[in-house]
Input
Amino acid sequence: MLNRYRSRDGILHAATSQASGESDRIAQHGREQVHQTVLSIESLAEDVTTNVAQVEDLAQQSPPGADQVSAASQALSRLSVDLNTLVARFSV
Output
């Protein structure tokens, strides 16, 4: 009978060790997945930061560009008026 208990104890110990080892492997896999997710989030955050900085740069460049377009449009308008005046002189 004592041998029977020892045998059961050995089986329970082996099963417990196997379950513990499996739990450790599952936990390690979970930690690795969390680490990879954190790295992905950090990379995404860096991309967002870079894109925001680029948008800010473009926003700062836009007013001078808009001013240039406005000045060119006004100059074109003046040239158009001058051209119409010249064309009117040659009317039949």
User: Anything to note?
Assistant: The CA atoms of residues 43 and 85 lie 61 Å apart.
